[in-house]
Specification:
Blueprint lengths: L1 E6 L2 H10 L7 E6 L9 E2 L7 H10 L4 E4 L2 H5 L2 H7 L4 E2 L3 H8 L1 H11 L6 E4 L2 H8 L6 E5 L8 E2 L4 H12 L11 E5 L4 E9 L4 E3 L4 E2 L2 E3 L3 E4 L4 E4 L6 H21 L6 E10 L2 E8 L6 H8 L4 H10 L13 E9 L10 E2 L3 H5 L4 E5 L2 E4 L2 E4 L3 E9 L2 H13 L6 E2 L6 H4 L1
Parallel strand pairs: 1-2, 1-4, 2-3, 4-5
Antiparallel strand pairs: 6-9, 7-8, 7-9, 10-11, 10-16, 12-15, 13-14, 15-18, 16-17, 18-23, 18-24, 19-22, 20-23, 21-22
Helix pairs in contact: 1-10, 5-6
Length: about 425
């Protein structure tokens, strides 16, 4: 099969890594790719948001299957365009991808269908935000409506931080049209986990449990990011408990989407908070989480390619997926300054030494190749991943590998997974 992976981050590198192991694979392409994916796939110099150009490329090469990584391409309608041209693609259509593309839609969707979530208010300007937060007695979260690369959630701790957030949303222009509406919702307490499954439009294939860490600093301090680390299993719930959540929340979501003529075909991600009142949905994603995907694909024993091809065709041929019984961990190494203004441009040292460690895989997220060197080029730079017999072993190995990698403005968390091991 000829396969095209769309995207340029660590998630897409991990997808290419897993697909490259399939005996069904003949040719693998990645658009636009990165220095890591270029070792596994032919790089295609087309950005992930250039929908028509990507469709032209896939048509010209008669690509058998396209796998869409990033959310922006999905919300721009890339699946609709590919299907219009008779191309097989795994991912939700634009109307279904709105479940991630609009926080407002997602919250109102959950409200309509009785899917448990936090109480919320929809606001359109600074005064409406100030009025809405009073409803939650200081325990609230602010979320921009549209896509924001994982950085559109702010949890102010006082009035000054509230005003800073309001200025950022409505005056700073950082989020553009994504902040035309802002969701103010009750802040939930509990343990957060990621519940991810693959859908062919009717059936749901649950992935193993996983947990990611969104805050930039140790102890879950500082602003939200696109994710600073992840591990699988979650260490919080059992596989039986996860199966029940997939049945009660995942399948309920698929059925509700179909009832609204938004049949969902692709990756369905539920970010859950396990509260004293039961699990509640924090957010939906319409694609694999990043960095959860890296940890999950490291554990996946089954061949991913035929599963995604069957999902794109609308009929899974298996009813469950097999995962390595141990554990996996993924550490995100970023540039200092992320998620604000990262200090980029340093040459990375120790990469080959770390990659050579048994049980370690390193996925490129924000690198570029320059004069024979690998450069730390953006916010999140590398994903250092490892597999072990248990979570403690996987984390220890990942941290040992990460210690061998260095550049002047390297930044990472030192406590990924530690709390669930206590």
């Amino acid at each position: 099969m000829k396969v095209l992976v769309i995207g340029s981050g660590g998630r897409e590198h991990a997808i290419c890594w897993k697909l490259s192991q399939s005996p069904l694979l003949d040719e693998l392409y990645c658009a636009p790719g990165n220095p890591g994916t270029s070792l596994l796939a032919d790089s295609v110099p087309i950005a992930a948001d250039e929908v028509h150009e990507l469709a032209d490329f896939a048509t010209s090469l008669k690509i058998d299957l396209t796998v869409v990584g990033p959310e922006l391409a999905l919300t721009l309608g890339i699946v609709d365009e590919f299907r219009l041209r008779g191309l097989n693609v795994f991912g939700p259509r634009q109307q279904a991808a709105e479940i991630e593309g609009s926080k407002v839609f997602a919250k109102q969707f959950m409200e309509r269908h009785g899917i448990p979530t936090a109480e919320f208010e929809i606001t359109h300007d600074a005064e409406e935000v100030r009025r809405a937060v009073k409803k939650f007695d200081g325990e609230y979260v602010l979320k921009v409506d549209g896509l924001a690369a994982g950085k559109g959630v702010i949890i102010p701790s006082d009035e000054d931080e509230l005003e800073q957030a309001i200025a950022l949303f409505f005056e700073g222009g950082r989020f553009g049209s994504s902040a035309r509406r802002v969701v103010v919702e009750q802040r939930l307490e509990g343990e957060e986990i990621s519940l991810i499954g693959l859908s062919d439009g009717t059936h749901l294939l649950p992935l193993a449990t996983s947990k990611d860490y969104k805050r930039i600093g140790d102890g879950d301090q500082g602003p939200n990011t696109g994710g600073m680390g992840a591990h699988s299993p979650s260490g919080v719930i059992s596989e039986d408990q996860a199966a029940a959540l997939h049945e009660n929340l995942g399948r309920a979501t698929l059925e509700a989407m179909s009832a609204e003529n938004r049949k969902f075909q692709g990756v369905l991600y539920l970010g859950l908070m396990l509260t004293e009142d039961g699990p509640k949905v924090l957010e939906y994603n319409a694609r694999l989480g990043d960095p959860e995907a890296q940890a999950l694909l490291l554990r996946l024993d089954d061949d991913l390619l035929p599963v995604l091809a069957a999902g794109a065709a609308g009929a899974f041929e298996v009813d469950r997926l097999g995962f390595h019984p141990g554990a996996s961990a993924c550490l995100v190494i970023a540039n200092e300054g992320y998620p604000g203004k990262p200090i980029a441009g340093d040459s990375i040292e120790g990469l080959e030494e770390a990659q050579a460690m048994d049980g370690v895989e390193i996925f490129h997220a924000g690198t570029k190749a320059e004069d024979g060197k690998i450069i730390a080029a953006s916010g999140r730079v590398l994903n250092v991943c490892a597999r072990g017999d248990d979570l403690g072993a996987a984390l220890d190995l990942a941290y040992a590998a990460a210690a061998r990698i260095d550049w002047p403005h390297k930044a990472m968390r030192t406590d990924i997974g530690r709390r669930v091991l206590l």
